[in-house]
């Protein structure tokens, strides 16, 4: 289970399923369990095989945020250190096939960890953006399939890292990243391969963050033009999952951007512009209607967070309820059981269950057929020329059929 990189990348693999179970136990178990699991798995070994397990746990949402303060600090430091060590070795070591661990494991680890852990890369923000540009360049210039495959995986994870760290959007190197993505996905489609669609989910998340980037409403801005073209590509996708990701990303972007001419980001042939029945006639009003519905839905369902006073009141009510139950059980446990049994008895139906008319009619037809077959058997027994062996086999099957029909009749009568 640990000797291949493939199980780490497939959610339904045995490794990922096992990691999922461990994460559930660590999240909802006793407080000490998270530290204990982290120490026994993450700190016990740093081999390539162990790296597979680490990545699987992080991808399944290992609760790093529930670690004790000391362990959490160690985990952050380890993630960042291994990430930057990999970045520095990227140009020296070709991204070829790895024997057991997935190539770029520190990048996968950081991307997964950012879902539950706040990690600061503010001291060297430019390294991440420069690394992303280097990965794009390596993918474009390499003719080796393994190298291109590894670059695609790294590209998707790096886009995931950036979209989880909003402050990176304000860095000077962001324009070069946007232009590089535009060149990779749009300007050179003949040199791009069909596997790039695997990067599009994280590309959609990345594009939503462009709402935090200053984009000019002008044709003279290469950065703005690249952003328009990338959104055109995403919004044209017709797969239902991509449609949802693209409209969600554009909805977030529209709600946060300072751009006034949002129509520039929407192609005339956006997937949501077409009629649902035939998918042939595009209408921009239809797209805007879908976008409006999405924004209204998000506004109507804000993230609710309880105040400390509300949480304290809820805890107090829970404690009172628990004390009341414990008091009743302590004084008269038999009455609790009796009450539960009474409730169960009340739920039993007071009338017989009625079978559908079709079942009753079918049973009647079976009875009629059985009577006809009995008459036929009487005539058959009077014919001495027929085979005795066939006659005996038929009687055996008929007897079983008779028993089955009699059971069905009794069930229908009881209903």
From TrEMBL:
<protein>
    <submittedName>
        <fullName>Uncharacterized protein</fullName>
    </submittedName>
</protein>
<dbReference type="Pfam" id="PF14868">
    <property type="entry name" value="DUF4487"/>
</dbReference>
<dbReference type="InterPro" id="IPR027902">
    <property type="entry name" value="DUF4487"/>
</dbReference>
């Amino acid at each position: 289970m640990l000797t291949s990189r493939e199980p780490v990348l497939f959610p339904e693999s045995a490794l990922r399923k096992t990691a999922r179970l461990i994460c559930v136990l660590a999240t909802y178990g006793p407080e000490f369990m998270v530290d204990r699991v982290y120490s026994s798995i993450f700190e016990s070994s740093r081999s390539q095989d162990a790296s597979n397990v680490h990545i699987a746990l992080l991808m399944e949402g290992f609760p790093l945020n529930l670690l004790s303060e000391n362990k959490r600090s160690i985990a952050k430091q380890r993630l960042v250190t291994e990430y930057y060590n990999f970045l520095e070795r990227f140009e020296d070591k070709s991204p070829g096939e790895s024997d057991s661990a997935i190539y770029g494991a520190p990048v996968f680890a950081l991307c997964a960890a950012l879902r539950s852990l706040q990690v600061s890369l503010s001291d060297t923000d430019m390294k991440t953006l420069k690394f992303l540009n280097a990965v794009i360049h390596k993918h474009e210039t390499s003719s080796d399939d393994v190298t291109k495959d590894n670059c695609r995986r790294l590209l998707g994870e790096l886009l995931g890292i950036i979209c989880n760290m909003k402050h990176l959007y304000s860095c000077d190197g962001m324009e070069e990243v946007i232009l590089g993505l535009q060149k990779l996905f749009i300007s050179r489609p003949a040199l791009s391969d069909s596997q790039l669609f695997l990067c599009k989910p994280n590309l959609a998340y990345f594009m939503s963050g462009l709402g935090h980037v200053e984009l000019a409403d002008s044709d003279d801005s290469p950065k703005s033009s690249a952003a328009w073209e990338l959104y055109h590509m995403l919004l044209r996708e017709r797969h239902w999952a991509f449609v949802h990701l693209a409209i969600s990303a554009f909805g977030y972007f529209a709600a946060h951007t300072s751009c006034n001419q949002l129509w520039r980001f929407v192609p005339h042939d956006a997937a949501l512009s077409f009629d649902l029945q035939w998918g042939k006639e595009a209408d921009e009003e239809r797209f805007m209607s879908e976008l409006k519905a999405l924004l209204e839905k998000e506004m109507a369902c804000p993230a609710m967070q309880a105040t400390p006073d509300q949480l304290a009141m809820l805890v107090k009510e829970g404690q009172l309820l628990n004390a009341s139950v414990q008091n009743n059980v302590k004084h008269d446990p038999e009455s609790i059981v009796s009450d539960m049994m009474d409730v169960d008895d009340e739920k039993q139906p007071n009338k017989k269950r009625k079978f559908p008319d079709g079942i009753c009619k079918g049973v009647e037809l079976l009875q009629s057929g059985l009577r006809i077959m009995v008459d036929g058997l009487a005539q058959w027994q009077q014919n001495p020329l027929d085979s005795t062996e066939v006659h005996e086999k038929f009687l055996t099957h008929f007897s079983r059929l008779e028993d089955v029909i009699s059971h069905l009749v009794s069930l229908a009568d009881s209903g």
